[in-house]
Amino acid sequence: MFQLKLAAVVGGVMLAYFGIQEFRVSQGTSEEPVAVDLAELESGKNSDNNHIRIGEHVAVYSGCVYQYRQDKYDRGEPKRSTSVDYT
């Protein structure tokens, strides 16, 4: 019974911690995203708003590191139907 109470307390503390972190991130944001140029972000200019919309840019996927899942017996490059876990 003690372990269950301890797990509930630890879970509550973790939820409170992550809730506070999300609250801090949400401070100073607006409902509508602010348009920002990607070159400005890359040069180090910070936006006053955390909710941004990146303008026109070119995605260079060959320079990315990504992880995907494939069947055990699949060989070769991933296909269009391959699910990417993260980039």
Task: Give the helices and strands, then pairings.
Layout (H helix, E strand, L loop, with lengths): L1 H25 L7 E3 L1 H5 L9 E3 L12 E2 L15 E3 L1
Parallel strand pairs: 1-2
Antiparallel strand pairs: 3-4
Features:
flat; two-stranded antiparallel sheet; alpha+beta; 87 residues
Protein described:
The protein has 87 residues and is α+β, with helices and mostly antiparallel strands. The chain has one domain (2-86). 34% of the residues lie in helices and 13% in strands. It contains 2 helices and 4 strands, in the order H-E-H-E-E-E. Strands 1-2 form a two-stranded parallel sheet. It has a two-stranded antiparallel ribbon with strand order 3-4. It is flat and about 55 Å long. The termini are far apart.
Radius of gyration, whole Å = 21 Å
In terms of DSSP E residues, the strand content is 5-15%
In whole angstroms, how far apart are the ends?
43 Å
SSE ordering: HEHEEE
Uncertain runs are: none
Structural class: alpha+beta
Envelope shape = flat
Strand order of the largest sheet: 1-2
> How many helices does DSSP assign?
2
Number of strand segments = 4
Whole-number average pLDDT? 86
Determine the fraction of residues in helical runs and give it as a percent range: 25-40%
The largest pleated sheet is described as: 2 strands, parallel
Number of domains: 1
Summarize the structure.
With 87 residues, the protein is an alpha+beta fold. The protein starts with a helix and ends with a strand. It contains two helices and four strands.
